[in-house]
Every structure is written in C-alpha cells, then in structure tokens.
UniProtKB/TrEMBL annotation, chains A, B:
Chain sites annotated for binding substrate: Q156, R177, D214, E240
InterPro entries: DctP_fam, SBP_TakP-like, TAT_signal, TAT_signal_bac_arc, TRAP_DctP_sf
GO CC annotation, single: tripartite ATP-independent periplasmic transporter complex
Identification of the protein by name: Secreted protein
Length: 365, 365
C-alpha cells in the first residue's frame, strides 16, 4: 500500500547571471504526499495535535512540496502497530514513542525514558549533542526505519490509583497500566503491569480490569477523564522523568527524499520537539489547577519504601537487559556515561535554582 | 546600507494535472541575502556558532533561497549597537539578547531573564503558548523590529569574584559586570554594576577595573579565560535562571519576505532555540568538570543574607520599573500571571524529580 503520489514539474535551470551572485537553487520540484500513522486518537491534546503541528511545519517549510496526512490510532493501523506498519511501508511515517516497541527492540526504551534517569534537558542534549541520535539511527535502521525526536511530554506523574498506597505492601497484586522499563520494574516489586493504548485506560479502570494506570500527566489524563474513575493522583515522578515522542520514517522513503526535504523533516522535528514540550508544561499546569480546584482530585506521593524498592528494581531490570542484549548494552553505556557528565551541572544549575527560588519566598513580585 | 540582493527567476505556473491533486506551489523564486550583526565574537562557542547554525538552518530550509551573512561583534557594528543597527536597516537581522536594550526599552528585560523568575521551560512556554511572543512583537514593532527566541544559555552562574564573599558586607563597593534587572538589583545592595561586552571582561578583571563579573556559565566563561583572573566561581543561580538569545529582524525587511520564508525563519529560530539550549547544557557540564579538575577552580555559593537581599532588591527594582513604564507593566503582568500558573506544576514535576533522584542514591545503574 504505497500512497506516495508525485508530480514532476519542469525543472528550473540555474540562471547564471554574472551581475547576480545568488542563483536560485530550485531544481526538479517533485512533490510528496505521505501518510503518517500515530499511536494517539486523532487530534488528542498535545500528542495528536502535535502530530498535526509537525505535519503542518513540514508542509510550510517545504513550501508545499511535501504533504503529510495524519491518521489517528486505529484509522489505518492500531496504536501499537505503528512501528511494524512503517517498517513495512504501509505508511511512510509514524508518530509514537520508542518504548512501545520493547517487545521487538529492547534498546528502544532508553530513547523514551529511564526510571530515575535523565531529565528532558539531559535527554535532548544526549540525542542532539552526545551521540544519542546516531545510536538511535543505527538500531532503528536494522528495522528499516529512521527516527527523530518530535516532541516530549516532560516529566510524567506516577498515575491514578483507585486505593490509597501507604506502604510497599499495598502495591502487592495491583493491576497497573505502565509501559517500558518502569513497567518491568513494577513487576519486580509484585505489581502486575500491562501496556494498553491510552484510549483503553478509562474503561479498564472503570470495569476493574485495572486497579491503577499511568498515562501522561494532568492535561492528557484529564482529557481521558481518568479522574472520574480513580480517586488518587500519585504525582511522584520516577518512571518517566522525560518521555520522548518520536517520528519514525520508512528508510526506503527517507532515502528517496532529496536532501533539502530531509533537512525540512529533521528541523521541523526539532522545532516540534520544543513546541510540544512547552505546550505540555503549560497545559499540564493549567490542568493540575483544574483537577484540584474543580474536580477535588486528591494529590498523593508514593511512600518512601515504594520509591526505594522501585529504584532498586529498576536497576535490576536495566542490568538484566544490558547483560542479555548487545544493543541495549551499547545504548545504555552511552546514555549512562552522558548522564554521569550532565548530573553535576544539572544539580548546580536547574536543581539548585528550584531550591533557591523556593527559599527566598516563592513567587516573584 | 541596504545589502539585499535578489534575482527573480522565471515563475513556475501551477501545473494542473487532473490525475495528480498535488501541485507544486513553487512561485517566483526570489532569493535573499541578508546581513546578521551579532553581539558575540565571530564563532564564539555556542553564541557565535549558534548564530552560524541558525543561518545555516535558514539556508537549508529555504533550499538556498535565503542566505544570511553572519558578522561578529565589531565587524559591522559594535556588540551593543545591534538593536539600533537593525532598527535602522544597516543590517537586516541581529543576534543578541533583549536585556542589552534596557536603556532604550526597559520592558525588553523580561524577555531575557528576571531575577528569581521563570526557568527556561517556563520562559519558552510563555513565549510560545502564553502570549509572550505577541507582547514582544508589539513592543519591538515600535522600534521597527520583529523578534524571535533563537537560543538560550540555560541557567547562568552568579559569576567570578576575585575575593571570597562571606556576608552582605563583603559586597559593598564591589565593581561588577552584570547586565539587566539583576544589575539594578545589585546596585540596590551597594554594588556598582556595569554592562560590558563579553570580550572586555577578561582585561577589565585583570586590570582591576572590575572586582567581579558574570558572563554566562562554565563553557563560555572558560572560553574567555575568566578562571585565570578570578579565583572564586559563585555558581548560585539567581540573576538569570534562563537567558533568551534573540534574533531581531528589521520590520521592513520582514514584511517584504514571502510568507514561506517568514515560516522558515520562525521555525529555524525555534529549532535553534532547542539546539543551543541543549548544547549549552552539555558543554557547561563538560567545562564545569574541566574547571574544577584541571584548573582547580573553587566553587562557592553566595551567602544566604546576600541572596535574601538580592531577592528583596530585585522585587523593588521590578516594582519601580513597572510603576514608571507602561510597557513594562503590561509585559510583567503577563509574565507574572503565567509564572503563577506554571510554578505548582514545575514544583511537582521537574523540581520534585530532582529531589527524588537525589534521594534514591544518585546516578542510575
């Protein structure tokens, strides 16, 4: 199912005019129309609209030479089949998140989120300046894909629980929706985890299939109405201190693009990364206020023994994966070494500032 | 001194082919060559190279239709005359930072940094999603300029001091290089401040014209060799929890651009914003390690009484400005209301995560 359609227009030869040193580089104006399958409901706040925004940027920056048709989850392929669909060329592009593919590509998880790992600033610094992108390219290329970061949710909350958690014992036997490495870490402390597409969380909580669920943060969680089916919102950030949203591109389609359209996609992705991250920051802040003030949501933090147990379990899960999978070992070595360099500056920079701002008495003027 | 040169090539008519719904939108291919004057030495780490990277992005995304010639500080105009030069059309663009223009436009400072104010995440969220860009457009338009955020240094350190500071008394009479609102706040606690271009800091410290100086952070400070002329590096983040790097464009030149090249500049600026911020994060982390391990730099934090006095002085300075200048009042009302919404989420998100990561025992696996 190749949907690419194109139209060759007359090529413009370079007009060599001696008096004017700047010649138009317009060459054969081939146009491209691509399909992008996504893991989000069509127009879902920040994620689905972020896919739309990215598509719009590509269209603008290519001056109309490239059009991307955005498909919501389930329209062409189900939410969790985006990777396979793009690898196979069913669609030219996808919009999703790497850790959804842990079943077929364990190392993918390090590009989304590591429990107790890097922040958004650190993760983006690694991808753009620390060799992260190159490793990501390499492991996705084995699946005929080219990836880019195209957004970020920022730090995610631990999630919605139907019952209050007062100790590690209260976690035993819970059924929890939580993807990625963090889901495995939860399994290690006696929780039973599953990954479900976001659209299935509400009903699963309501019917008792789930006792608890992480989704994203206040903005997206409220959009699915999760506050209506679980009383306690555990805000502790541990599982996803950042979460990369990706676009992946079928490698054959990518290689057929002229270089300037490859530039357009790469830079539209970078611009979209910042646009989505800052949108989440603001909309989460607004939604948090609404959840507490208008819906009476109870905010909670996970007890210390639970956090400590999750930390230890996370380290075990990561070590096990690194020892059994060569790609995971190479990616995590790079990730881990980078984090080691970044931490001292993050601590005297962003972290120290938060502490200082709190100490002097809160809000400015 | 208008340097714009252009070449009109033959316009491409839309080729209407019934079977192909996607037509090339190529229209008259006018090319543009613009000059960009900057406040940084040519190729200066992250700031000067960031100007180059932005220019390169514009060239790539415009597919060669737009070329930007980057000029270091002093090549066409001095570092601190960028605003006037671009407003007058001496160059089409500038690359600098808004708070350098406080003498002619007090409200500009809120777009760079507010002491004890918003973080980088919060500032970018305000600019992109909270009405900050619209206010910035409005006040710069009065000076015939169109601004965009094109980078960010991230949190800045308090700076280099030749003598140790143990109390508020030690600050009295110090001569300090520090621009913007923070400089005024320092004046309020008995310090004498001045703004100098970065390139003049080293000599001013060496000859005793200055007792102390802020510049940016480890990466840029080391590039100017500031550790060679001052023994103590005060890392306290208070004056610039973030610092926006701007591009400003002569409004007549901007209005002459076709819409697709306006799109290119806007999105190249957004992509450059994230690229520079993450580059600073990583390079600062590396440079911090080098400063401490190889150059034996002494890291210090400002004493609590100094920080408290600076906080109070900052509030006074901001209030005074807001009461005396209508643009400042309007901009700060927006800034301040936005910060009020953002803070609770920043605190349970990014800030809480830093605390949690520290508590569980530092580095991941």
């Amino acid at each position: 199912m190749q949907r690419r359609q194109f139209l060759k227009t007359a090529g413009l030869g370079a007009a060599g005019v001696a008096a004017a040193p700047f010649v138009s580089s317009a060459h054969a104006q081939e146009t491209y129309t691509w399909d992008m399958v996504t893991s989000w409901p069509k127009n879902f706040p920040a994620l689905g609209t972020g896919a739309n925004d990215f598509a719009k940027r590509v269209e603008q920056l290519s001056n109309g030479r490239m059009t991307i048709r955005v498909h919501g989850a389930g329209e062409l392929v189900p939410a969790l089949e985006v990777f396979d669909a793009v690898a196979a060329g069913t669609a030219e592009m996808g919009h999703s998140t790497p850790y959804y593919w842990r079943g077929k590509l364990a190392a993918s998880q390090f590009f989304t989120a590591v429990p107790f790992g890097m922040t958004t600033t650190e993760m983006n610094a690694w991808l753009y300046h620390g060799g992260g992108q190159e490793l990501w390219d390499e492991i996705y290329a084995k699946h005929n894909l080219k990836p880019f970061a195209v957004g970020n949710t920022g730090p995610q909350m631990a999630g919605w629980f139907k019952k209050e958690i007062n100790s590690l014992a209260d976690m035993q036997g819970l059924k929890l929706r939580l993807p990625g490495l963090a889901g495995e870490a939860m399994n290690g402390i006696g929780v039973s985890t599953v990954n479900l597409p976001g659209s299935e969380i509400f009903t699963s909580l309501q019917t008792g299939v789930l006792d608890a669920a992480d989704w994203v943060g206040p903005y997206n969680d409220m959009a699915f109405g999760l506050h209506q089916v679980a009383d306690y919102y555990y805000t502790t950030v541990w599982n996803e201190p950042t979460a990369t949203v990706e676009t992946m591109i079928n490698l054959d389609a990518w290689n057929e693009l002229p270089e300037d359209l490859q530039d357009v996609i790469r830079e539209a992705a970078r611009a979209s990364n910042l646009a989505m991250f800052t949108e989440f920051a603001y909309r989460n802040a607004q939604a948090l206020e609404t959840l507490v003030d208008e819906h009476g949501v109870q905010l909670r933090e996970l007890p210390e023994d639970v956090i400590q147990a999750l930390y230890e379990s996370s380290q075990t899960v990561i070590q096990r994966q690194v020892e059994s999978d060569d790609d995971s070992r190479r990616v995590y070595e790079s990730y881990s070494a980078f984090q080691q360099v970044m931490r001292p500056f993050s601590d005297i920079g962003e972290y120290a500032y938060f502490k200082g701002r709190e100490q002097v008495g809160g809000q400015s003027a």
